[in-house]
Amino acid sequence: xxxxxxxxxxYILSNPSFPEYVKIGYxxxxxxxxxxxxxxxxxxxxxxxxxxxxxxxxxxxxxxxxMIDNLNPNLRAIDTFDGKKRTKEFFAMTVDDAFNIxxxxxxxxxxxxxxxxxxxxxxxxxxxxxxxxxxxxxxxxESDLLSKGDTDAVALYNQLxxxxxxxxxISVQPKKLYVAFKTKRxxxxxxxxxxxxxxxxxxxxxxxxxxxxxAADMSTTGHWxxxxxxxRVTDKSQIEYTMKLIKQSYESNLT
Length: 255
Description:
Blueprint: E1 9-14, E2 22-27, H1 30-37, E3 48-54, H2 61-71, E4 76-81, E5 84-91, H3 95-109, E6 115-117, H4 122-137, H5 142-146, H6 151-165, E7 171-174, E8 179-182, E9 186-192, E10 197-201, E11 216-217, E12 229-233, H7 239-252
């Protein structure tokens, strides 16, 4: 008799302890894996499953890791401890971003029925709410966010910030993942990456005048900043046009 093959899943896990990251991995037995991860007393909150994708072979998550690394090597959590490089299964993205990747793969391969998004339960909702309250009470420093970028990225940020502050009475509020520029509410959020800036414009899709098509549509994609538009600035020559877009968001959020 042929032994029945025990298929596992690629999982997307979130954790309120570090909401800026998701964990994408593989498990033959997901419940066993969760028990292993949540055994540690070093994290305040437990991991929870956002989605699973049933696969026929083991460790297919490695291909997804490689794909994400090729698209954007800055997303992977990598550090050096005791002289050794540690590459982890954590990625700086939202659970929606991670799910969209699996959904695209599932749709292309004709396996959409193998992908399942889980509904949060009562305890999960309570823990996420508590984590959000802690996040909102935490003070972040602009210098901490600037440390994520190289010299060129920091120079881009400082030049952009100077131009933004010329618009009017604006407060600058560092958050965990980005710097918020606001009047009555955020009109633009700037995320400092290793070599560039991601700028989110707090405007609804279809309201931005962008003849050069510079802003990306984020209305159906999970992201950290506010609004439906995202601009990536990689060179100081792009700042003048970017400011025309930011000014529109500034004016639309004054009232």
